[in-house]
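User: I'm designing a mutation panel for Glycosyl transferase and want to avoid disrupting the core. Could you give me a predicted structure to guide residue selection? Please restate the sequence first so the numbering is unambiguous.

Assistant: Good idea. Sequence first, for numbering, then the predicted structure tokens:
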Amino acid sequence: MADFHQNGNVATLHNLSTRRVEEMSHEINSMARDRPITLILPCLYSELEGEAIGKIVDELNELPWLHRVIIGLDRADTAQYRDAAAFFSRLRHDHVVIWNDSPAQLAIGDRLKELGLYPSEPGKGKNVWTCLGYNMAFRDSAVVAIHDCDITTYHRDMLTRLVYPVLNPNLPYQMSKGFYPRIGGGKMNGRVTRLLVSPMLIALKKVIGDRDYIDFLRGFRYPLSGEMAMRSVMLPDLRIPSDWGLEIGILSEAWRNLAPKSVCQVEIADNYDHKHQELSEADANTGLSRMSTDICKALFRKLAADGTVFTPNIFRSLKATYYRTALDLLEHYDADATMNGLQLDRHKEERAIELFAENLMRAGQIFLENPFESPFIPAWNRVHSADPGLMDDMLKALEEDKAVL
């Protein structure tokens, strides 16, 4: 993917293969002495049984400049927490495992519920939000990176390239977003980005007209990537969704809080693959079906907050425009796959487009029926204002959890 194209909306930092990553890592090692770097890993206990996380830990151990790793552990009982703590003890870096289902963590949650500040639903968004809170409680990191625990093609170069733009004081960026091709097993992957987000943004522009926010999102080559890095100064004001709209939600917050020149996207891998979600056509509450609905809702809410008026007629027009646009883009993907010797099942691709079109309408209906719904988890500066002692008690909760080890 080595080129030097700039879209004019988001600075694109390419991998032109003209600089050794080891040289970049050496430079990061020098800069990180004064600007410590923390990595957040939102993790399900089940992911410890997969092939990816062990390699990720081994690769992280080769990075001398990583200050701390914060692991947010979901869906774990006491025995599983012990297993996870033992598993991550392999990390050579300072690290903490946040047992999100522990009695101490649930007590923290009860305090937030009393204040009306508790995340509305469990999931990756809540996990990341909790980890960000702990990072702020430690008060010693200048840069925070996030990535998933199911990346089967993981290499330490990915994190190196991801953090460099926001760590380097000579560059203006406060946030970087990773991008890459989604290829695995001889197939073209990334269905939700290719078949939902890309045609949806084109359709939105046709139906509701030019919006700087839409152009901003269209500037990202992979807007749903889970890999991002941010300077810590932007974290207290960050309001993120608790559902599958997390990645779009964080980009929306970058649009709201940062100057456009403060955001970049960086090419972090030549190939990327991770665990694949089922399309889940029979169950709208799981898999890619749930994900597509949540992403549409996140887009509609943000546009409404910026003054866009949505009606049933607009959603009907949007569905028709999206469907035609997605089928047109599918022709491009099919040619691209053929050119590169990749498999692309046209029937399955069109089934996904049909499902996403239905879920677009479903998301629109949910939006119209709940116009006052607050989908975002409160920003940490609000939490701190409501309960100034909470962060110190969160650190105490970590120590309580360690007592069961």
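For picking mutation sites, this is relevant: The longest helix spans residues 312-339. The domain at 11-403 is CATH 3.90.550.10 (Spore Coat Polysaccharide Biosynthesis Protein SpsA; Chain A).
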